[in-house]
């Protein structure tokens, strides 16, 4: 349908460091494989999404969340005849820079780094991909294609002012066209992230007994789906009803994006340049669905993200991260041998080390240094 607007691996701008291809995969397929096989991707298994993973085997982690976002992204790319490999690569990689304990860990690291360039997980993702992963004897990072890096850096939109620490340095040697909109595949990965947490955070919150189906009925979008399903299935259990509600919800969101984006693209987009020069994202919900999603986000913020049961755990998580940072600032030589004597500011080195930790490793280390 819109294949002419898809990123074409045959015309990729290539990689910062030239490599010799050794198989028949296209460049975006290789990028996806490099992300999946990276150390940072594997460690997402033990990093918090919303709920501390050690408290239940069923809660989503950063890894399962990333896999779910990738699946939605691939589905939307296929519907619109765009490049599935690129859409999946951006989705799989978008959270690689998250520290332990989710956004509370990110806030704590940013506080610790406030005088040293700050910290945010999007910038750290680029740092992981271009510096911290060590796979090749001649260069650092995974050496992804320009298109994958551009899509990952700009999956939340253009970046114009106040560039974060690593991006500010990186673009001096690799121009990612920060003032232009990203490819459609990157935009799809971004909205797929929204779909995932707008639905999966609801499921995890119900499992954690923070909300129930009655709470969901306060949102008309969910209420209509519940009524429809209860009419269709007379003896459905609450657990099955929740699953079917979220299944239908995700389908409605995906179909809405497909229809709305198809209309957007049919109106005025003839080349990828048209997409990149647009003022806003081309991939979008309809106004009605965007309003529904805004209400879901508001609901999750008040009933889940700011729930008192989570706030205590978040405060403790921040305490752990801040303590680890101050400990290594005073005890540089306690860092692992392969982290010592690198040509980088000690504050950034410690930040890199902590941000790469899993929840359980950080907790165990915190207990160890406080014994």
Provide a count of the helices. Answer: 17
What fraction strand? under 5%
- Helix/strand-derived category reads mainly alpha
**Into which percent range does the helicity of residues fall?**
55-70%
Mean pLDDT figure: 94
Radius of gyration: 21 Å
The CATH superfamily of the largest domain bears the name: Hypothetical protein af1432
Order of helices and strands: HHHHHHHHHHHHHHHHH
CATH level-two architecture of the largest domain: Orthogonal Bundle
CATH topology of the largest domain: Hypothetical protein af1432
Number of strands: 0
Runs in which pLDDT lies below 50 for 5 or more consecutive residues are none
**Termini, distance in Å?**
62 Å
Largest sheet descriptor: none
Tell me, what's the shape? globular
Key features?
single chain, about 375 residues, mainly alpha, Hypothetical protein af1432, 2 domains, 17 helices, about 60% helix, about 0% strand
Task: Walk me through this protein's architecture.
The protein has two domains: 25-181 and 310-369, Orthogonal Bundle (Hypothetical protein af1432), CATH 1.10.3210.10; 184-303, no CATH class. The chain is an all-alpha fold. 59% of the residues lie in helices and 0% in strands. Helix 3 (62-79) packs antiparallel against helix 4 (84-93), helix 3 (62-79) crosses helix 9 (184-207) and helix 4 packs across helix 7 (146-153).
Helix-strand blueprint:
Blueprint: H1 27-36, H2 39-43, H3 62-79, H4 84-93, H5 102-112, H6 121-132, H7 146-153, H8 165-170, H9 184-207, H10 213-216, H11 220-232, H12 238-268, H13 272-276, H14 287-305, H15 308-330, H16 346-355, H17 359-369
């Amino acid at each position: 349908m819109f294949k002419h607007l898809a990123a074409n691996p045959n015309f990729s701008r290539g990689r910062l460091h030239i490599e010799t291809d050794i198989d028949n995969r296209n460049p975006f397929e290789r990028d996806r494989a490099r992300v999946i096989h990276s150390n940072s991707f594997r460690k997402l298994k033990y990093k918090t999404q919303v709920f501390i993973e050690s408290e239940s085997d069923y809660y989503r982690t950063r890894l399962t969340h990333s896999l779910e976002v990738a699946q939605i992204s691939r589905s939307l790319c296929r519907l619109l005849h765009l490049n599935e490999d690129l859409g999946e690569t951006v989705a799989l990689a978008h959270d690689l820079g998250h520290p332990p304990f989710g956004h509370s860990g990110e806030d704590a690291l940013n506080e610790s780094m406030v005088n040293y360039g700050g910290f945010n997980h999007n910038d750290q993702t680029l740092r992981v991909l271009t510096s911290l992963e060590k796979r090749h004897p001649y260069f650092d990072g995974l050496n992804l294609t320009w298109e994958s890096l551009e899509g990952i850096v700009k999956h939340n939109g253009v970046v114009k002012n106040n560039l974060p620490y690593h991006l500010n340095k990186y673009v001096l040697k690799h121009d990612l066209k920060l003032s232009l909109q990203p490819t459609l595949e990157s935009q799809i990965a971004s909205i797929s992230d929204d779909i995932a947490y707008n639905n999966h955070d609801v499921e995890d919150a119900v499992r954690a007994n923070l909300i129930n189906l009655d709470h969901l009925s306060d949102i008309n979008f969910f209420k209509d789906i519940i009524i429809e399903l209860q009419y269709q299935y007379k003896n459905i259990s609450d657990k099955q009803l929740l699953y079917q509600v979220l299944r239908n919800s995700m389908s409605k969101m995906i179909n809405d994006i497909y229809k709305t984006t198809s209309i957007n693209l049919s109106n005025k987009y003839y080349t990828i340049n048209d997409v990149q020069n647009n003022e806003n994202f081309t991939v979008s919900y309809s106004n009605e669905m965007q309003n529904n999603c805004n209400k879901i986000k508001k609901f999750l913020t008040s009933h889940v993200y700011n729930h008192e049961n989570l706030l205590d755990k978040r405060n403790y998580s921040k305490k752990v991260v801040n303590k680890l940072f101050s400990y290594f600032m005073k005890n540089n030589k306690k860092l692992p041998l392969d982290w010592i004597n690198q040509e980088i500011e000690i504050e950034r080195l410690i930040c890199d080390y902590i941000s790469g930790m899993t929840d359980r490793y950080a907790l165990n280390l915190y207990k160890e240094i406080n014994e």
